[in-house]
Amino acid sequence: MGTTSKKKNMEIDFQDNMILLTRKYLKRKIMCPETKFRHHIKERQHVLDLLKRTVECGESNSALLIGPRGSGKTTLVNSVLKELSTIKNFKDNAMIVNLHGLVHTDDRLALKDATRQMQLENVVGDKVFGTFAENLSFLLDCLKAGDKKRSKPCIFILDEFDLFCGHQNQTLLYNLFDVAQSAQSPICVLGITCRLDVIELLEKRVKSRFSHRQIFLFPGENSAPEQALNGFEERVELFKYLLRLPDNENINRVEEQYDDCMIDSQFGTVWNQFIDDLVSNVTMINILKKMYSLDVNERCFRNFLAVAVSTLDEDHQRLEINDFIEASKMFTQDDKVLLLEGLSVLEISLIIAMKHETEIFDGEPINFETILNRYNKFANQNSSIQSVQRPVIMKAFEHIKNLELLTPVGGTNTRTEKEYQYYKFLLTPEQILDALKNYPSLPTEVKQWATNSLQ
């Protein structure tokens, strides 16, 4: 009896451990996209050749990789760098400097991090640079030192490139492009941005030193002719790929990549069969279709899967349809409804006043005075509603306007006092009522006022 019980406990512990490892492995797989790139074959080859020529031939280049968010720009660059890292000459000689516009908010920070990534602190020794100009001068001297044959090729990857254009005098961009144009040492400057008008953001002196090489990525393109799948079929295949565990053929490769996620092959086979069955479920397909119709962005889809996978634990060892239904709600819910749920009670009350005013006058424009009168009428009839001073209500109204839930009618007239400026209300009654269902601790009087018709 004791042996049987002990064996059963070991099986439970094994199963629990496998589920935790599975969750860890899948979350890594989903949230840290592999460097295998499936689209934009021509554009990828262009970037690959550009970086390869910098290292192998000593060329100096500059280029911009442009495309909307989620089109795969960063994944493309990472896949190129991953492939080039397998080439010994590139791995041994090339220096990669990654700078990000959201992190390096001015040239001083960017310069400091570039110096660190290029491992130039050792060259500096005990010398202390007091000014940005001295730091820049030192970095440029290091870049320009030597010649094409003796200098180490350096590749600068500037993510959110458009944000660097906002730096004072665009000093960093000017000097990087100047070094690339002078071709004193092999350097490649590759900017990544979602701004189609990014060239117009460059100052004239910077623009004159840029090569004007632009590589565009358009979402949803299959550049490889052999990829005959349509968009949704490919999304289903991606769903299966991201949720499957490594089979016997790939288990060794995966263990090398995730050495702390060694999953039993027999467990993996059972899990993969379960995922295949899940894809054949009509409800699951409908969820995927709805997600795809709302947003073809792969990043959003990966976030959706990550939320579902996060539900796995010792007590919940299978991904159920309901897990995906609940996860999809986070990504299919109206953005304006989510926005309303974060407003104050006063702001929600003004929204309700706008709803009633719009319904009574059949969609006619509204202004602050009409909304104030309707709100005051409601507040005076309900003793539990705390009275609020006019400036506070005005500030709440301005906040609603700044959230773009109101739009000026006929433009903003500077001669009209702001209390009497007319606006079009952009919310539907359904959106307001949906938001109120999930609004925490909303006074009963306010909720009743929202559902009462035309008052």
From TrEMBL:
It is found in: Nucleus. Its main location: nucleus. Signal peptide: none annotated. The keyword Magnesium does not apply. Belongs to the ORC4 family. InterPro entries: AAA+_ATPase, ATPase_AAA_core, ORC4, ORC4_C, P-loop_NTPase. It comes from Aphidius gifuensis. This is Origin recognition complex subunit 4. GO terms for molecular function: ATP binding; ATP hydrolysis activity; DNA replication origin binding. The keyword Cell wall biogenesis/degradation does not apply. PANTHER family: ORIGIN RECOGNITION COMPLEX SUBUNIT 4 (PTHR12087:SF0).
